[in-house]
Amino acid sequence: MFFTRKTVVVEGQERPRRKVGCLGGCLIFFAVYFICSAILGWIMGDFFSSSEVKLQDKTIYRLEMKGMLIEQAKESNPFAGLMKSMPAVPFVGNQNIETVGLDEILSNIRLAKNDDKILGIWLDGAELSAAPASAKAIRDALLDFKQSGKWVIASAKSYGQTNYYIASVADRICLDPTGAVSWHGLAAQKMYYTRAMEKIGVEMQILKVGTFKSAVEPFFRTSMSDADRMQTMQYLDGIWSEYKKSVGEARHLSEEQLNALADRFMDLQPAEDQLTAGLVDTIVYTQDIDSLLRIYAGTKDYHLLSTAKMANVKRPESKAKDKVAVLYLEGEITDDSGDGIVGKEVVKTIKKIRKEDDVKALVLRVNSPGGSADASEQIWHAIQNIKSDSIPVVVSMGDYAASGGYYISCGADYIFAEPTTLTGSIGIFGTVPNVSKIRNKVGLDMDGVATNRHSALETNMIYNGMNDEEHDLMQKMVERGYDLFTSRCAQGRHVEQDYIKSIGEGRVWLGEKGKEIGIVDEIGNIDDAIAKAVELAGLENYKLVYYPEKEDPYQELLKMLDNSTEEERLIMKVRELCSKPRIMALMPEIKIQ
Predict the structure, then answer these.
(1) Which are the catalytic amino acids?
(2) Domains delineated in the chain
(3) Mean pLDDT in residue range 477-498
(4) Under a CB-based contact definition with an 8 Å cutoff, are residues 364 and 394 in contact?
(5) Most C-beta atoms within 10 A of its C-beta, which of 8, 206, 336, 421?
(6) What's CA 167's distance to the chain center, in Å?
């Protein structure tokens, strides 16, 4: 539909009216819609959500156990509430995954421990998406909180297994009459694409070093190799042992009892059985939890403070001149762009930190399964440069610090890991797609000219498949990458390169085992890493500064408006995979249930 009037009077003269199409009109409408909605959101208080909060007496910290746990909390976004409540409209994708920062939760728990206005902590719900190492960090912080003599209670409709592992520290665990505790043990599942790729005519040409480097197995196998099966079972057993040990101590249940309950698949058992088994203390509707909070608070006039509000309670500010920089490195490692660890940006940040005269130590919080081998090398080099200025570097490993994640960690002066951190995976692989079958199937021919023998090497490998000479050239490049990787590890850990190769081969280790074999110095959390950095720098008074800087809320809004579907993002991933040969230091992608 277009406006029907064909002319408009401007300064006494008739001029043709510009036509505004449906798409233009829609874009104008949505622009006005978002602007007005944003203003309304500000008026309703979203914009002021980051304003300072003053604690009141008789306050309970309500720790909402929901959302996706990430390492570093994002900047408070005035548009977040708006986007959640917005009805579905064209051009707007579903990008409203709620995230919560591990750093924010740990800081809040420390504040709650030390401030007398906080009576206790209520773990509200059990839908937090967290990996075992991060879950342990929260659980340990809650145990430390209880040392103050304050209480923790947990309530949920149902408990996921990892959420129950966290909630097991509570003085009282409450379960809705219609709910259950998920307790069934651990399983690891991996998707294999080989047969599907054969059907569409794509063959993935693999080059790798390392018997255990199983990240590429889904592209040429249809099931787990014996080596991958062994290493996966070993780290699953380690994580499950931690769950059973910690839950058993908290709930006064033996390992045998907990295994027996897992074999019953408690997820499908009635709430009464959860109570009889000792997994919970009270069966109460979640809507009636107020009566229990009154009892624990000793008053009906208590105040609840959410994680977001607690984060805005003013902390004491250090006036120390010396600084300890904490740099968060989370996600897959890429060269120039992406949502994870972008090598180019990390190098720039480390250079910026290096120029700060007041920075006396650097702590790297690494939570990465790896990625680009070249980007990992660039980050490793930047770390060596900052160390050359006598600035100690200490690593704190999160859920993962494997393959490229270990590459960027190995050059630190000291390395901490959680017992259930997945680390190691010291290996390299390359992938080159061969689409000659699908090209022939659809009738595409190729021809061309070249000045030299391998001028069209990359194109030939992809569209015709590797010949023996090309395969040999690529394999040698991957082997050089592995040799460089293991030499970096040997240099950082002060051992022989042959030893690193003997424990490398792409094998994944848990943090506890990593300490035994020498790729980790100590089991501990980020606070331990900071304390070590302070010790190595010889500091008495210091303040913490955090990197990278949090993203502008308006950039977050643009991400929320991304209209790409899951299917489109999957296609983009496949396109990226098939665009060029890649040399990667990446651990296997496995879903743990």
Answers:
(1) 213, 403
(2) 7-43 (no CATH), 59-76+98-184+265-311 (3.90.226.10), 323-553+569-587 (3.90.226.10)
(3) 95
(4) yes
(5) 421
(6) 21
